[in-house]
């Protein structure tokens, strides 16, 4: 471990979910000094989110099928020398020289603390996870409409339900997990509305055969839905939410294979909440700002292009878990452990390709990544989903930009990409910086191209390169990059406050 503020850690890991936890403890067990930064107060990430101790949950593991695996990682962390830094919101990473990185972070529950800090390290592992992809539809801004992952987070972290009668809709395997959790916790789930079907998995029989645990997971969720008499409607979508002050009902319609609603098939379902999501998007802003190469995934998202040892295209920078493509917690843990071993081998000058443990991890990673690709292909958004949108539907919630305004910018002003639409309409300029509306804006802009944005059948790429990964006070941006000697001795070794004025923004 570093023993003075002028020394750096061997490795800084950003993100304390399954990938970050596995990477941090594996690298530390291999002899590296490691700092583990995460914005949350507790480890586990989104998947292993659990209630705060103050809620007095007697059995938090009851909300998780794989709690023992997380408990094992947490025990390894407790027994290690890893410096865990919770409440650290990383806003950028800079490379000062070869084997010299600086991680810049804000501290506090929401990054509101006046004193930003820097963590210096010889290498960086990005395990930043993912966020939900939302495709808008009329009424989606009504109170009572929540993300599918958000509904699960409310239950896991707050032990609350989004409503008493909750429709679960969108696309992806997360829907089954969310619906079974809500039903088991006491909510009435009138329907699971899946825009795709499940037959797409049959096109990848090898991926299914080599990942039997995924079939077991599906069986567990399916049995829970059967037990609670929850119907699953495939090739169907929510085309409208009804209500005045909050959700009162939704209209569900059948779709064709392009996700185009079939006229005359709409059916109204009474509910007081809607949990909706259309898959996950890799969170890669820190990496793309540094110039890391990316790749397109089968479901139209952008992920990092990694080699067989989890290295990005930028030397000294590794990534594990969802930034390399959505694949679930088990794949994330495997990639984190693989990255931890590879980084340790690189920093101590040992060849990384030897050893049975490394070979086994690479085999497991390839097997699970194959299933992840099959899953992405099976649930890729259909090219005609924008037909749900009326011109008065809000697409950018932050700036209240409607679908009609985006279409006008594309049709009349030649804006055929999300960045140009942003300049003309302010779509994506709000607090979320396009994370919620980016996919929708890109699709609507593509409608103005020669093929109408339909030819590929996937969400067009949007701008993922952002200089700041989280909102940052001007005082932090104005602070000097190098700390003064003799900084606060109460800080963790290798972690320093940035010098200069620290004033919260006034506007």
Automatic annotation (TrEMBL):
<dbReference type="InterPro" id="IPR041854">
    <property type="entry name" value="BFD-like_2Fe2S-bd_dom_sf"/>
</dbReference>
<dbReference type="Pfam" id="PF07992">
    <property type="entry name" value="Pyr_redox_2"/>
</dbReference>
<dbReference type="InterPro" id="IPR017224">
    <property type="entry name" value="Opine_Oxase_asu/HCN_bsu"/>
</dbReference>
<dbReference type="InterPro" id="IPR007419">
    <property type="entry name" value="BFD-like_2Fe2S-bd_dom"/>
</dbReference>
<dbReference type="InterPro" id="IPR036188">
    <property type="entry name" value="FAD/NAD-bd_sf"/>
</dbReference>
<feature type="domain" description="FAD/NAD(P)-binding">
    <location>
        <begin position="9"/>
        <end position="335"/>
    </location>
</feature>
<dbReference type="Pfam" id="PF04324">
    <property type="entry name" value="Fer2_BFD"/>
</dbReference>
<dbReference type="InterPro" id="IPR023753">
    <property type="entry name" value="FAD/NAD-binding_dom"/>
</dbReference>
<dbReference type="InterPro" id="IPR051691">
    <property type="entry name" value="Metab_Enz_Cyan_OpOx_G3PDH"/>
</dbReference>
<keyword id="KW-0560">Oxidoreductase</keyword>
<protein>
    <submittedName>
        <fullName>NAD(P)/FAD-dependent oxidoreductase</fullName>
    </submittedName>
</protein>
<feature type="domain" description="BFD-like [2Fe-2S]-binding">
    <location>
        <begin position="395"/>
        <end position="442"/>
    </location>
</feature>
<feature type="region of interest" description="Disordered">
    <location>
        <begin position="462"/>
        <end position="507"/>
    </location>
</feature>
């Amino acid at each position: 471990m570093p023993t003075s503020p002028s020394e750096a850690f061997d490795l800084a890991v950003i993100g304390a979910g399954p990938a970050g936890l596995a990477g941090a403890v594996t690298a530390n067990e291999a002899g590296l000094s490691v700092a583990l930064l995460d914005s949350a107060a507790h480890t586990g990430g989104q998947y292993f989110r659990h209630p705060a101790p103050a809620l007095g949950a007697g059995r938090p593991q009851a909300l998780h099928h794989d709690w023992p695996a997380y408990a094992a990682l947490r025990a390894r962390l407790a027994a290690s020398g890893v410096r865990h830094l919770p409440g650290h919101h990383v806003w950028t990473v800079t490379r000062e020289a070869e084997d010299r990185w600086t991680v810049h972070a804000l501290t506090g529950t929401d990054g509101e603390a006046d004193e930003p800090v820097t963590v210096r390290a010889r290498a960086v592992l990005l395990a930043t996870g993912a966020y939900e992809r939302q495709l808008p539809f009329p009424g989606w801004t009504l109170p009572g409409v929540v993300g599918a992952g958000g509904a699960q987070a409310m239950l896991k972290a707050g032990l609350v339900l989004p409503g008493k009668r909750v429709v679960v809709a969108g696309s992806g395997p997360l829907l089954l997990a969310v619906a079974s959790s809500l039903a088991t916790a006491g909510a009435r789930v009138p329907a699971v509305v899946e825009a795709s079907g499940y037959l797409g998995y049959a096109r990848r029989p090898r991926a299914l055969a080599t990942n039997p645990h995924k079939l077991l997971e599906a069986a567990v969720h399916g049995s829970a839905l059967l037990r609670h008499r929850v119907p699953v409607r495939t090739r169907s979508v929510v085309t409208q939410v009804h209500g005045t002050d909050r959700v009162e009902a939704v209209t569900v319609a059948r779709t064709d294979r392009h996700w185009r609603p079939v006229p005359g098939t709409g059916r109204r379902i009474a509910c007081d909440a809607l949990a909706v999501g259309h898959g996950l998007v890799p969170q890669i802003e820190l990496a793309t700002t540094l110039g890391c190469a990316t790749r397109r995934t089968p479901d139209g998202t952008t992920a990092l292009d990694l080699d067989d040892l989890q290295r990005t295209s930028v030397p000294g920078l590794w990534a594990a878990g969802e930034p390399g493509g959505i694949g679930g917690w088990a794949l994330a843990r495997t990639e984190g452990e693989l990255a931890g071993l590879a980084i340790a081998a690189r920093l101590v000058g040992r060849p990384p390709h030897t050893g049975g443990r490394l070979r086994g991890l690479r085999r497991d990673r390839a097997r699970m990544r194959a299933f992840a690709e099959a899953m992405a292909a099976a649930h890729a958004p259909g090219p005609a989903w924008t037909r749900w949108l009326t011109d008065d539907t809000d697409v950018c919630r932050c700036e209240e930009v409607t679908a009609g305004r985006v279409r006008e910018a594309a049709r009349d002003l030649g804006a055929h990409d999300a960045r140009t639409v942003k300049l003309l309409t302010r779509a994506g300029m709000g607090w979320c910086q396009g994370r919620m509306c980016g996919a929708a804006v890109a699709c609507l802009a593509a409608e103005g191209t020669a093929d109408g944005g339909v030819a590929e059948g996937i969400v067009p790429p949007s701008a993922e390169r952002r200089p700041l990964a989280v909102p940052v006070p001007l005082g932090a941006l104005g602070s000097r990059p190098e700390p003064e000697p003799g900084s606060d001795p109460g800080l963790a070794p290798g972690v320093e406050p940035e010098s200069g004025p620290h004033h919260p923004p006034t506007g």
